[in-house]
Amino acid sequence: MDNYEYKQINEIKPTDKKFCLVGKVKKKFNGTIVLEDEQVEIELEGEFEVKEGELVRVFCSKANDHFKIDFLQKITQEELNLFKKFLSLYKMVKEYV
Questions:
Q1: How many Cβ atoms are within 10 Å of 9's Cβ, its own excluded?
Q2: What are the backbone dihedrals phi and psi of residue 16, each rounded to the nearest 5 degrees, phi first?
Q3: CA distance 24 to 30
Q4: Which of 1, 3, 17, 50 is the most buried (most CB within 10 A)?
Q5: Is the pTM above the cut of 0.70?
Q6: Long-range Cβ contact pairs of 32-40 (< 8 A, separation 24 or more)
Q7: Sequence-ordered list of residues with C-beta below 8 angstroms from that of 17, at least 6 positions apart, any chain
């Protein structure tokens, strides 16, 4: 069973099968959500109740030549800030382990 690995959009590789992204919904149209993080944006397939401008965490998988959302979780700005702090600490600890 593959786990969803956290990535920024610009870190996604063609070999990635499952990943997790955090960002803001830029657009939503025809079963597609455009998600943007601090770097770039990506189109993801999925029908979810979400509004443009909302912060979300999405768990995605690769389906042929596109990415589909398996699960979407709305988050608050406070949760996003806490997540960024966690990532910063995790990167520091990871260097020593």
A1: 17
A2: -70, 130
A3: 18
A4: 50
A5: yes
A6: 33/58, 33/69, 33/72, 35/9, 36/9, 37/8, 37/9, 38/8, 39/8, 39/9, 39/10, 40/9, 40/10
A7: 2, 61, 62
In SS3 terms, 56-70 reads as EEEEEEEECCEEEEE
Distance CA(97)–CA(83), nearest Å, equals 20
Spatial distance between the Cα atoms of 44 and 67, rounded to a whole number of angstroms: 5
Fold for 5-96, please state it.
OB fold (Dihydrolipoamide Acetyltransferase, E2P) (2.40.50)
pLDDT at 65: 84
